Structures are given as structure tokens and as C-alpha cells.
Amino acid sequence: xxxxxxxxxxxxxxxxxxxxxxxxxxxxxxxxxxxxxxxxxxxxxxxxxxxxxxxxxxxxxxxxxxxxxxxxxxxxxxxxxxxxxxxxxxxxxxxxxxxxxxxxxxxxxxxxxxxxxxxxxxxxxxxxxxxxxxxxxxxxxxxxxxxxxxxxxx
Length: 154
What we know:
This protein is mainly beta. It has one helix at residues 2-15, and strands at 40-42, 47-49, 51-53, 56-63, 86-88, 120-126. The two termini are 29 Å apart.
């Protein structure tokens, strides 16, 4: 039931406009040198700068809701704070806090970083994407393991 509740909260946060990424400008170069294209897009909270890998624009660790800490724990998600300037979106966000699995487990793959401020998402998009369909994928793990930064999912 808790997993369903958390998944419902995530979908509500994504679908109610807590986070909107405008991919239409994804392919626009930020410099005149086409070989050094760095994608920059506008979100509802500010601009983000991603990475270019061949024909893909990649944005990592984009906050889609405020950290569920303090009085916000176990409440509906709140929008993340707006930011000024251009926020780097080039590294995965932290995984949710979870127990450490034993070294002998076939699932042993500890996250690089864990934090309660873990409500972030990653976007991979063709460089020329405009009004493209979106696939939302949520890693498994039974609230005990996993995260969006595991090499298995890259």
C-alpha cells in the first residue's frame, strides 16, 4: 500500500504541473560551434543545462518536488523552489534513503548518494525533439533498494 501511495504521489506531482520541461527548445544550440552544443531548456522553475551525447540531450537530477522533510513528510508533494540563472542538470540526484544490502546479495549495488531530498528525475531526449511523446519509468526496489542512477538502467 505504501508503494502505491508513493507512486500515486509521484504521478500527481508530475501530472499537476509541479514540473514541466519544455523540450521544444532542446535542440537549440547555446553556442555557435555546433560540435560544442550544450542543451539549455526552460522549465517551470527555471532554466536547466544538460549534456549532449551524440544525438541525445540528457538532463539529470531535475527536482520535480520539494524535499518531503519536516512538516511536509507524508503530505502531498509541494512544488520545488524556483531558481535564478541556469541550473546544472548534469549529475544524477541522490537515491532515497534505504537499508544497505549485504555484500553477498546478488542485488548489492549501493547508491552513490542517499538523501531525503531525492525527488528528482532524469530526461533523455533526441536533440531535435519537439512535442515528442514521453515515457515515464520508475525503478523498482520495493522501497528497499535501487535508484535512478544505477548503471543497469543507463
